[in-house]
Structure formats: structure tokens, C-alpha cells
Design goal:
about 170 residues; alpha+beta; Beta-Lactamase; 6-stranded antiparallel sheet; globular; binds methionine sulfoxide
Length: about 170
């Protein structure tokens, strides 16, 4: 049993939808039970339960090689298993350490297409001890699928995931 903090009843939750809070609670339980081995379950959970989340995955930073490597994911397989820092949405987040919400991927010049069906994307970094160690990447087949609420939800999830990464 992992020690994943049960800090779910804080004021930030009044800024989230009910399904966001429920998915955070389920994710917290998965992480407490399985640790980082549960990341695939979280991807599958978000893909099946979160509206308009059509591809959900984790990328992990390798500062020595300046690349992101794909970890657990749920959705169509992708050729972008290794992404250089700076390339695409994920590569930009690797350099900036800031979330990037892209309402229409066709309007983005620095973008790596995983699938022709993807219309919008949201990438949120994962920090540990002030160092960016990875990111959560969500693709949607819907234009303008994501809002600030999704970003807050994923930032909170990123904090829970960070607690089980060694
Ligand atoms: N679209 C991403 C690449 C990863 S796929 O979405 C799975 C990007 O531009 O970095």
C-alpha cells in the first residue's frame, strides 16, 4: 500500500466538476494500491470516463538525452514514443515546465500529429521537488475539448502521480 495523500477535501474542489473529483478519488485509490504500476489503469480510466478524452498518456523526461519517453498510455498506438525537448506540444512543455492547452491542433505550427483524428490537446507537467519529471498528455477528437477546469484537474492528478514516482 503506497502512502498517497488523501488531501481531496480542499477548496480547489469547488472549482472542479463532480466527475473530476470522482476521477481524482479513483486515481488516488489506484495509486495507493498499485503505485506507479497503476498508471496504465489511470490512463484507461480517464479515457473511458472523462468526456472527450480520446488518448491519455504519460511522457517521462530524460534530461541527459533531452528527450521525453512514452510510458503508460491508453488509446491508439503512436509513433511518438521518443520526443526531443522542444518538438511538438509535449517538447514545448518539457522546456517551459508550463501546461499547454491547444484548442485546435491545426492552428499550431510546432505540433507532432499522433493521429489525423486529434483536434485538440492538453499537456500538463509533473513536478517532483521543483524538478519537471514528466507530463500527462491528453488528446481529443473534438475541437476546443478542454477548459481551465480540465487543466486544474490534471494538475491535481499530476501532484498525486508525483508522490508515487521514485
Ligand atoms: N501531439 C503531441 C505528440 C504526442 S501524441 O499526442 C500522443 C505533440 O505535439 O507533442
Amino acid at each position: 500500500m503506497q502512502n498517497v495523500s488523501a488531501r481531496l477535501m480542499t477548496p480547489i474542489f469547488i472549482l472542479m466538476k463532480k466527475w473530476h473529483v470522482e476521477l481524482l478519488e479513483s486515481s488516488r485509490e489506484i495509486l495507493a494500491d498499485k503505485g506507479k504500476e497503476g498508471l496504465g489503469d489511470i490512463c484507461a480510466l480517464l479515457k473511458s470516463e472523462a468526456p472527450q478524452y480520446d488518448w491519455v498518456g504519460f511522457y517521462w523526461m530524460n534530461d541527459a538525452e533531452q528527450t521525453l519517453r512514452l510510458g503508460a498510455y491508453s488509446g491508439a498506438s503512436t509513433e511518438h514514443v521518443l520526443i526531443p525537448y522542444g518538438k511538438g506540444i509535449c517538447g514545448q512543455v518539457a522546456l517551459s515546465g508550463r501546461a499547454l492547452l491547444v484548442p485546435d491542433v491545426h492552428a499550431e505550427t510546432n505540433y507532432l500529429a499522433c493521429s489525423t483524428t486529434t483536434q485538440s490537446e492538453l499537456v500538463v507537467p509533473i513536478f517532483q521537488n521543483d524538478r519537471c519529471i514528466g507530463q500527462i498528455d491528453i488528446d481529443s477528437h473534438t475541437l476546443h475539448a478542454f477548459t481551465g477546469e480540465d487543466q486544474r484537474f490534471l494538475e491535481y492528478l499530476s501532484g498525486l502521480v508525483s508522490e508515487v514516482m521514485s
